[in-house]
Amino acid sequence: MDFKRMMTAMALSLLILMGWQKLFPPPEPAAAQQPAATAEAKQQAAALNVSAPLTVETDTVKALIDEKSGNLLGLTLRRYNATNDEQKPFVLFQASKEHNYAALSSVVDEKHNNLLEKTSFSAAQKSYSLQGDKLEVRLSAPEQNGLQVEKVYTFSKNSYLINVRFELKNTGSEPLKVGGDYQIVRDNSTPEGEGWFMHSYTGPVVYTPEGEFQKVEFSKLDDDFKSGRDTAEYQRKSQGGYTGMIQHYFMSAWVMQPEKGANACANGCEMSVKRVGENLYRAGVYPAAIEIAPGQSKTLSADLYAGPQITEILKSTAPNLELAKDYGRVHIFAAPLFALLKWLHSLIGNWGWAIVVLTLIVKIVLYPLNNAAYRSTAKMRVLAPKMEALKKKYGEDKLAMQQAMMQLYKDEKINPLGGCLPMLVQMPIFIGLYWMIFLSVELRQAPWLGWISDLSRPDPWYVLPAMMAATMWFQTKLNPAPTDPMQAQMMKIMPLVFSVMFFFFPSGLVLYYVVNNLLTIVQQWHINRRMGFAGAAPAVEVLDKEPAAKGGKGKKK
Questions:
Q1: Domains in the chain: how many in total?
Q2: pLDDT given at position 106
Q3: Which CATH number characterizes residue 81's domain?
Q4: Which of 34, 239, 498, 512 is the most buried (most CB within 10 A)?
């Protein structure tokens, strides 16, 4: 039956999307085993200590900079609520015992040794607030080993892009060759809001024009750390791109080739993604070192993006930064669907109604495929009595049964896969829709109707999951019950199982499935009626009796 095939396909899709990570979770990171890694871990841990906090407030973020190290150790996104507490703002960067996630930057020599390890910066004030379009936070350090350094953060209005610039002066008598070291460090903790049924990739990413977009899983870095080898797959050398960390809805990345500005990797960059210690990982980049003659001054500069994965913002920030909004292998379907959803939102002004209209459009586009599937299913229903008679005739002789069935299909000119193939063709589109809605931070804090004030959160009153269960149950009634008792029982349980799962899904995603189910019911009812199966179940039941009667008379003869 068509509904049975659809439910089987949906179940398999959900298992593929969610079950793998839960059945086979990545191994827990092992303790540090390499002396070099241990030393680096100590350096990283020291860099994450907040000794003298500086606070910076703009219209988009509240940043915490450690005055001594000059590192960005805290970042709150003021326009977004915390996942588990709507009364609190969302915290992206944090340096604490519970969670480590920060942006580190320094000046290094040709061998990547930190030249600022023993340097202490100082600032003119302890707090800064954006008043105009730009805000500079300048940190100065005393001259050390012939190098004078000033570190300048530049924050911009209505932006999540932070420029980090080192102003360097060679005060010695010998040329200096120095470069930048830009890192995102993070532990492997699961972001708030990730649950059993909803899971997206969290971890390091690298994009280079040479190697394209690559995810470097924590588990791969754990293997490297334990073995002492560097075998994780990503592009090591590049002339541009970015590297950082992504999680559901949000990301951070050092952008070496911004849409506007100079390419920090014009002379080459070395990407470095690795585990540096106990539950601590880095995604970093080393631009090629530059030479500073005695008495000469030069500048090292890089841009840090730390904020939401809003497609429009990512596209305008750097080439292919929008790939960090990770749709995976269904990107070819999800990206155009989101573009359509965004366009509908620009017309309608409400993301919820935009989802409703998008679902309707997809349903119209796929109508020919669904029509073919339902017509094929209707033809198979006609054959149900004959197939039942063949089962009784051949009993356990499976080979003879198969031959007889193939002959029956040939005589009736029916393709037994005619109902399955159209649905298989649609599956990538359905999966693309799933990921598109699930990963769209644009839906975060976006209202639909009165009781749904945030399409990224579960329905607080469970109205949509209840509707999901009801529509699934109604679909089962539009189809005759399977002849197999086990299948019949599964059809009864399916609506309940799926509705329980959807209780935890974002309401925007459940809204899509509810609307899709309602449209499917209308379409299925229309096709059944047109094909003469408005009362599908009784028709099959009547037909089932005819072969038995004929067969019985034949036996008596």
A1: 2
A2: 97
A3: 2.70.98.90
A4: 512
